[in-house]
Amino acid sequence: MSLEMVLLAAHVPSICHEAKVPDFQTELVKGLRLMKDTIREKQTDVIVLMSCHFPGTFVHYVDATPRHTGVLTAVECPDLISDVPYDYPGDEALALELVKAGKQAGIPAVEVNEPTHMWDYGTVVPLRYLVPNQDIPIISLSVCWASSLEESYQWGIQIGNVLRQSGKRAVFISSGALSHNLVRGRHNKPSLSEQAMDNQFIEYLMKGQYGVAREMLNQYAKIAGVESGGRHLAALFGVLTPEQRAEFWGYGQSSGSANAIISFVS
Ligand SMILES: [Fe+2]
C-alpha cells in the first residue's frame, strides 16, 4: 500500500539490555519506544532494516530467509551483548523483489536464504525495542563496503520504489550513527567540530533539505567518520521522498559517536 515511515535508528551496544542503559542514552530508548508505538499504529506489514553491522564486502545482501531465528552474542562486544535470542518472521517474496529491482538497476544485490545466517547487533538491538513481540516480518539488508555513496543512494531509490509498490504497509529503517570517530569511554561525546557537523546535518534533515544534506554527506562522512562511511544515510536519502518530513525523537552519545532517532513520515 505504501511506505508508511522511514526511520533512522540507533543500535549502540549499551542499550541492548534495558537494565544496563546509561543515563546519557535513555533518550535513545525512549525514542525507540515511541517509534514502536508508531509502527504498531500504522499496522506495519513488513520492516526492511539496513544495518551498518551487516557488512557486505562487494555486494548488497538482502536477507530473504523466511524465518530469522538465532541467539546473538556480538563478535565485537560479547561482554555487552551476549545470549540474546531472537525469532522473527521474514518476507521471502518481497526480499526477492528487492533483489530483482536492484539487479535491473545495475546494482549488485544478492539474496541470502540461509537459516544459519546470524543477525548482527545493528539489526537485533533496535528491533528489541521497535518490535518486542517479534511479530512483524523483517527483511535485513547489509551495507556494502565496495559501494560508493552514489550507489548506496541508487540502491535506496530502488528499495523505496519496491516498498511503495509492494501492496504492503512498509517501514524502512536505517540502523546507524552520525559522527563515528570512536574513542574509549562510553560517555564521551563527539568532538566540538563533529558536533557542529552533526547539528548542521540534522538541521538540514529537520528542514526537509534532503538534497543539501546529501551533498554535505560526501565530506561529512569522511571528516566525522560517519558510521559505514555514511552508506546507510545515502540509502535512506534514496528511499525518502520530499513529502516525508522529519521528526526528532532522541539523541545519545556513545564512545565519541552521535546517535539519533529521527522519523520521516508524510
Ligand atoms: Fe554501530
Characterization of the model:
This protein is α/β, with parallel strands linked by helices and 266 residues long. Helix content is 35%, strand content 27%. The chain has a single domain, classed as LigB-like (Protocatechuate 4,5-dioxygenase, Chain B, 3-Layer(aba) Sandwich), CATH 3.40.830.10. β9 and β10 form a beta hairpin. The structure holds fe (ii) ion. Fe (ii) ion binds at residues 11, 52-53, 122, 177, 227.
Characteristic terms for this protein:
binds fe (ii) ion; globular; six-stranded mixed beta sheet; two-stranded parallel ribbon; Protocatechuate 4,5-dioxygenase, Chain B; 266 residues; alpha/beta; 10 strands
In short:
With 266 residues, the protein is α/β, with parallel strands linked by helices.
Instruction: Look at the structure and name the CATH superfamily.
Output: LigB-like
Q: Ligands in the structure?
A: fe (ii) ion
The general outline is globular
Spatial strand sequence of the major β-sheet = 7-2-8-1-10-9
Mean residue pLDDT: 97
CATH class: Alpha Beta
What's the SSE pattern? Answer: EHEEEEHEHEHEHHHEE
- The proportion of strand residues reads 25-35%
- Uncertain ranges: none
**What's the count of strands?**
10
Instruction: State the helical fraction.
Output: 25-40%
How many strands, which pairing sense, and closed or not: the largest β-sheet?
A: 6 strands, mixed
Radius of gyration: 17 Å
The span between the termini is: 14 Å
The figure for the number of domains is 1
Regarding quaternary structure, what we see is single chain
CATH architecture: 3-Layer(aba) Sandwich
Tally of individual helices: 7
CATH topological fold name: Protocatechuate 4,5-dioxygenase, Chain B
**Structure class:** alpha/beta
